[in-house]
Amino acid sequence: MYQGIKHIQAFLAIARLGSFTQSALELHISQPALTVRIKQLEESLGVRLFDRNKRHVVLTQTGRDLLPFLERVLTDMESVLRISRELACMKCGSVTAAVLPTVAAGLLPEAIRRFGGKYPDIAISVIDAIAERILHAVKSEEVDFGIGSYLWTDREVDFEELLVDRLGVFFPDGHPLSGRSRLTLRDVVAYPLIMPCRGTSVRSLFDRAIEKAALKIDLVCETVYLSTAIGMVRAGLGVSILPEAAIRAADCGGMRMTGIDDDGLVRRIGIIRKQNRSLSPAAGCFVQALKEASRVPMAYFSSAAD
Amino acid sequence: MYQGIKHIQAFLAIARLGSFTQSALELHISQPALTVRIKQLEESLGVRLFDRNKRHVVLTQTGRDLLPFLERVLTDMESVLRISRELACMKCGSVTAAVLPTVAAGLLPEAIRRFGGKYPDIAISVIDAIAERILHAVKSEEVDFGIGSYLWTDREVDFEELLVDRLGVFFPDGHPLSGRSRLTLRDVVAYPLIMPCRGTSVRSLFDRAIEKAALKIDLVCETVYLSTAIGMVRAGLGVSILPEAAIRAADCGGMRMTGIDDDGLVRRIGIIRKQNRSLSPAAGCFVQALKEASRVPMAYFSSAAD
DNA sequence: CGATCTTACGGGATTCGTAAACATA
DNA sequence: TATGTTTACGAATCCCGTAAGATCG
Question: Quick check: A7 and A36 in contact, CB under 8 A?
């Protein structure tokens, strides 16, 4: 069949330089080898490409007709090389991640800062989503990877922990729960509850703990945004269980937070990846930046419930 | 360096079929050979293209990024193959010829008819020109070949005779030259002459014959078009020496033509080609049609002097 | 005769296929 | 265990470079 790129390079070099000898020098092969290459190309294409007049070599009409097409093949091949090199060296490409809002506002900016400094040409796009949707996005390969809580054992995905996020009880000033250094789930369920809606990691952890302890609860409201839940708590509608770090992000005036002593109520946050899928060089590098960033304390958290 | 088309075919087959085994069947190679090819391609591009999960093979993100580029290379390569095949089989292409007007109106239509019947996809373009310009067009490679008279020995071009065109003396009814069965140049130069202009083959032959015989002439007019010369002869301005066949093409009422016995006054018309240049398949085939057509008598001649 | 392309041929690298090993569902 | 990919290795092929041949200016 047709031979390969080297034959096209040979053709173009001779078409340009008008000499086998010159072209052989440029291509770093011997001149007889070039003769053979052109002969092979001519045979495989079934047409004569050059008229050899001993002193000069010139394209035949057929050669002239084919020249632009062969040029395009080589140009395109060079594009492939350039782009794959750029992808490998992260001079281009993109990373897409589905991330819990708390992480998107807390850990992520630091990671993006680190990564963006090293690889300014990689576009990073972040989809902030609740735990359930992150898992879906990872499994459907909408995203390169997710950052979230690994709540449901799922053999389709791998999990690698980045950080552990403790939950706490949020209640208004002057609430009966005040003054205790630690609380338990059993203490909390005696009061009306405001919780993030289903599908969030906090809610999943909470529901699981409730079921395990076989407790009854009085859920007065479900919120999408963490800040809404906090507002309701401050207004005296009830108490809530939320990430401890939220105390730093939201306006928590008129509120108290106390840690909760319950094994189930810790949010293990990490990288969620589809099994048997390799990360692109850029994504792999960004994950690295995330791991580094997770070793320094986070400054801020978002106001969305997740 | 990068390997070749076969690697790209391998990549695309696997990307499409999602299986090394299937692709190997399609490509008619063994499956281990395919593994090696992909490994080579990945190494030469410096990126991982597939995630092998034993049960399925799926593109990596990088592979997906590169897919359209590699597809384009193969598409382009297939274009090259298709076009060269078409050029070879004369399913496409064009032929350009510089042709004497008498031939363009006489021999050429028959040749075009024959050729066009067999190869309807080849475009034929004809430049009608006088002998001098035909030679120039051939040497500058404006045209694939010329059809004309080989008047000036020129090592840059080859000549292959197609037909011989005799010249005759044209004079008005009742002219003193009337009634002779043959004439000589010496008979003719006694009268005022109307001749095709310099650069035409007829004029060149004439001038050469005059010079060789060391005759003096009375040139009253030079014409570009053969029909003009005939009109002037009919009007009694003088006599002319023109291709005998012109008697059939122009309106020659009130005129007589007699053959001339002079060795120099035959026009040898044939294919004029640049030396050491091969003809395209289409041009070569058209030349063949010309040779065939030149073996049947011509019906008409043009009215232009050449 | 000098420059240049073509042909011939031997050595070396590449590629292929068979067979065996390995991995996953 | 069955399916499918990777590794290993011997054999065939392909490709290259050197040397000799041919051709044109």
Answer: no
